[in-house]
């Protein structure tokens, strides 16, 4: 079985930095023509230079279904095919107790993390169906199946991504399309800086990892490359943990970041309830 990706094309959402950039570099190094998308054009332009191998970009807000459709079409243009779609976009700035959740923030987190993944699958799959198959890989998180107190919005969104992977795999298998996902643990990136750079939180993550080291973008990229490539031709509907074994233990304790702000908010909520009683 060939282990090169020569003659293939891929789209990587949120491919300008962090895990997405690592994935794009790995696919391109193996011969794939990679298109990355994200909102910041200057970041994308720098990223394609670092990826090399003819990589291309398109500016795209993944919360806009029409822009995702355009990005998918762009990725398929040069070769007239799309072999891999990597749904990597996700996140959410909102944090705090679920009982204090702002619904606009909730909806924004779902749009960026879950709905963007649906849009990627929805627009990539018809191209893959027409050509006789392809592979879709979604990037979830250990937060998709382990609780993270005060990051509940993100946890729910990633859990949704995992069920979306399973259902999509079931529906699209008949067309030769495989759908899988990866569950990274803590990987130092721009998005995870608040976790990785807070000593007590970082140490708690490490204490839950049998391998006791933080991940790298290369670790995650290697897993995505495997699931996307021909080596995984009989694998679909699966979530692959890339977390140093963290999922064998418990979710992280994030009180070192949130307790100082969350506790007064919860006290105020209780006081308000008592005064209204």
Describe it for me?
This protein has one domain: Rossmann fold (3-Layer(aba) Sandwich). A 7-stranded parallel sheet has the order 3-2-1-4-5-6-7, sandwiched between helices. The model has no long low-confidence stretch (mean pLDDT 95). Helices cover 48% and strands 13% of the residues. It starts with 8 loop residues before the first strand and ends with a helix. The protein has 9 helices and 7 strands. Helix 3 runs parallel beside helix 4 and helix 4 runs parallel beside helix 5. It is α/β, with parallel strands linked by helices. The longest helix is centred in the middle third of the chain and has 29 residues.
Q: Secondary-structure blueprint of this entry?
A:
Elements: E1 9-13, H1 18-29, E2 33-38, H2 41-51, E3 56-59, H3 65-76, E4 84-87, H4 103-131, E5 134-139, H5 152-172, E6 177-184, H6 193-196, H7 199-207, H8 217-228, E7 239-242, H9 255-276
Parallel strand pairs: 1-2, 1-4, 2-3, 4-5, 5-6, 6-7
Helix pairs in contact: 1-8, 3-4, 4-5
Short structural summary:
The chain has helices at residues 18-29, 41-51, 65-76, 103-131, 152-172, 193-196, 199-207, 217-228, 255-276, and strands spanning 9-13, 33-38, 56-59, 84-87, 134-139, 177-184, 239-242.
């Amino acid at each position: 079985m060939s282990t090169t990706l020569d003659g293939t094309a891929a789209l990587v959402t949120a491919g300008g930095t962090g895990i997405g950039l690592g994935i794009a570099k790995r696919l391109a190094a193996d011969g794939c023509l990679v298109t990355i998308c994200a909102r910041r054009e200057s970041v994308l332009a720098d990223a394609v230079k670092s990826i090399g191998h003819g990589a291309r970009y398109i500016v795209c807000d993944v919360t806009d279904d029409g822009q995702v459709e355009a990005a998918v079409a762009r990725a398929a243009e040069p070769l007239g095919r799309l072999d891999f779609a990597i749904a990597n976009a996700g996140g959410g700035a909102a944090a705090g107790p679920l009982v204090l959740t702002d619904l606009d923030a909730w909806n924004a987190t779902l749009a960026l993390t879950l709905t963007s993944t649906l849009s990627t699958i929805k627009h990539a799959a018809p191209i893959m169906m027409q050509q006789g198959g392809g592979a879709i890989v979604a990037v979830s998180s250990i937060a998709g199946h382990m609780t993270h107190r005060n990051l509940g919005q993100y946890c729910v969104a990633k859990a949704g991504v995992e069920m979306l992977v399973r259902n999509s795999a079931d529906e699209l298998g008949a067309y030769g399309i495989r759908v899988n996902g990866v569950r990274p643990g803590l990987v130092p990136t721009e998005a995870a800086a608040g976790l990785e750079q807070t000593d007590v939180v970082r140490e708690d993550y490490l204490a839950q990892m049998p391998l006791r080291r933080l991940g790298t973008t290369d670790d995650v990229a290697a897993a995505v490359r495997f699931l996307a490539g021909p080596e995984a031709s009989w694998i679909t509907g699966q979530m692959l943990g890339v977390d140093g074994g963290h999922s064998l233990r418990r979710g992280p304790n994030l009180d070192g970041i949130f307790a100082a702000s969350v506790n007064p908010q919860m006290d105020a909520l209780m006081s308000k309830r008592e005064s209204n009683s």
